[in-house]
Amino acid sequence: MFSRSKHTPGARRAPDDAPPSSGPWKPSRFRRAVRGGWRYFLLLAGVLSFVVAVRGLFLPNRILSGGVTGMALLLNRLTDFPIGLAMALLNVPIFVLGVRYVGRAFAVRSAAAVLATWLLADYAPVPAWTHDPLLAAVFGGLLAGVGTALAMKAGGSLGGFDILGVVVNRRFGLGVGEVLLVLNGAMVVVAGLIGTPELAMYTLVAIYTAGKTIDTLQSPRGRKAFLIMTRRPDPIRDRVLQQMNRGITVFRAEGAWSHEGITALLCVVTRAELRELSDVVQEEDPSAFVVVLESSEVMGSFRNPTAAAYWRRLQEARPRGAAGR
After folding, report:
1. Can you give the pLDDT at residue 10?
2. Which of 98, 171, 254, 321 is a Cys-bridge partner for 163, taking CB atoms 3.0 to 4.6 Å apart?
């Protein structure tokens, strides 16, 4: 008779003799201070990366980029208005619109990032990295995307359309990079109108590169959730627990049409373990019905296996696979 497993799907198993929890864990003041310091370090790193993209790559090559940054670059190009100050002023109405959705802590960190961006963009000596517009568009978009992603990982934003992207992401679940790509499309049109079609294409390359970089860094390690419907749950469960050292949850299920009882197994693995778990299911129950789901985020005690541990498991599983064939 099966019951719900006490292990989180995909989590490392705790020892059987582990002491019981004494109550909800609360971080100490020191841990909270370290976490806060780390967040502001990431925020500063993101600001530096973004400023290098704007001052060292976009500005010397007359590329507009997207969003508020593109507006500030356009204003600077037409009137020589300081870029950093323009970004700060243009962010004021966006903050007023978005602060109710993003929370006070997010708004405070974002305001600090915008202030730092203003000062560094206007007063830091950043030389031109290249005068090739294609290189500037690609690497400028890459650095701008890295800076934006670091700010988001710190629980903040660099302002501009990033805040609008976060609002839409939280309300509708769309990718932040996709949202920014749509919102920044207007800057491509403007670049084509005031410049040349070639300038518009370079601007589009920069915006696209930044958006893809953000989405890649937001979820760098893809995980897969296996939902396995099987009539032979014991061998699959045992191999997942012992061979793969992954947690697994066991459910009782019933077919809606046949009303026959069946066992459902849920396990979360990394992409590197995808083939291994597929082989386990195929070897133990070829008739099992398997659904593989994309897990954009996993919370809890999930751990990624080291390369040495994964290689050792492959070597240990090879004789079993050879015998099965």
Report:
1. 52
2. 98
Q: Which residues pair with 290 in a beta bridge?
A: 228
* C-alpha to C-alpha distances, 141 to 51, 58, 310, nearest whole angstrom: 12, 9, 35
Q: How many independent structural domains does the chain possess?
A: 2
Please give the pLDDT value at position 48.
Answer: 93
Q: Are 150 and 43 in contact, with CB atoms under 8 Å apart?
A: yes
Asked whether the predicted pLDDT for residue 96 surpasses 80, the reply is no
- Residue where a domain terminates, one of 218, 243, 268: 218
Clarify whether residues 153 and 214 are in a common domain.
Answer: yes
Q: Rounded distance, CA 253 to CA 261, Å?
A: 6
Tell me, yes or no, whether 132 and 248 share the same domain. Answer: no
Stated pTM of the model: 0.64
Query: Where does residue 13 rank: exposed (0-12), middle (13-18), buried (19+ CB within 10 A)?
Result: middle
In a domain? residue 63: yes
Shared domain check, 236 and 168: no
β-bridge partners, 261: 254
Same domain, 178 and 98: yes
Q: Is residue 233 part of a domain?
A: yes
CA angle 80, 84, 87 (to 5 degrees): 100
- Write out the DSSP string of 74-104: HHHHHH---HHHHHHHHHHHHHHHHHHHH-H
Residue 180 contacts by C-beta under 8 Å, 6 or more apart in sequence?
66, 67, 161, 162, 165, 207, 210, 211, 214
The phi and psi torsions of 290 (rounded to 5 degrees) equal -125, 135
Average pLDDT (258-273) is 83
- By residue range, what is the domain housing residue 249? 223-324
290: domain CATH number is 3.30.70.120
Closest CA to 66 of 180, 178, 229: 180
Instruction: Tell whether 51 is covered by a domain.
Output: yes
For 17-37, write each residue's pLDDT tens digit.
444 444 454 557 788 888 888
